[in-house]
Each structure stands twice: as C-alpha cells, then as structure tokens.
C-alpha cells in the first residue's frame, strides 16, 4: 500500500522539550481528543480511535562508512480510517 506523508517534523531538541510534546499527545489521548500537529505552514489533525494499535520499535542503524551507529526509539499509533476497534496487549516501559 502506498504511503502518503501528511506531516513531517524533525529537529534536534532537549529531552525536556520532547517530553513536553509527548505529554501533550498523552493528555489528548487520555481525554479522547484529537491530536493536531503544526509546524510552520503545515498542519494536520488526527482523531485516534479509543483502541488504536500501539507499536514501539528500538533500532540500531549501522553506517556503511564505518561511522558510529544511529540508535532510535519509535512510537507509533496506527488505525484504519473509520475503524474504532483495536487489539489489547501488555507492555511495560521503565
């Protein structure tokens, strides 16, 4: 299935600033509210269902030039448009 990027933002910032953004998303999810992403003249509003699929991925990407590896943690919410269902599961984050 082709992917259409609706919004993209990438910038180096402090962990405190990142935590503030994540906390805002978490608060909106907890209240069942939409999530609006804005940067410059770009904006998108998403309305996650009550039970989206939650995916966490930890990755190490090695450099082909022998440089240092890049580590990442990705958090993703997924749902089908118009789908209010989702599957549960157990996850622990420390």
Short overview:
The protein is α+β, with helices and mostly antiparallel strands.
Description:
The protein has 94 residues and is of the alpha+beta class. 18% of the residues lie in helices and 30% in strands. It has a domain at 15-78. It contains one helix and four strands. The chain is globular and about 45 Å long.
What are the low-pLDDT stretches, counting only 5+ consecutive residues below 50?
none
Portion in beta strands:
25-35%
Number of strand segments: 4
Mean pLDDT: 89
Radius of gyration: 16 Å
- What's the helix-strand series? HEEEE
The termini sit apart by: 34 Å
The total count of helices amounts to 1
Structural class: alpha+beta
Oligomer: single chain
Task: Please list the strands of the largest sheet in the order they lie side by side.
Answer: 1-2
Please estimate the helix content. Answer: 10-25%
User: Based on CA inertia axes, which overall geometry fits?
Assistant: globular
Major sheet size, sense and barrel closure: 2 strands, antiparallel
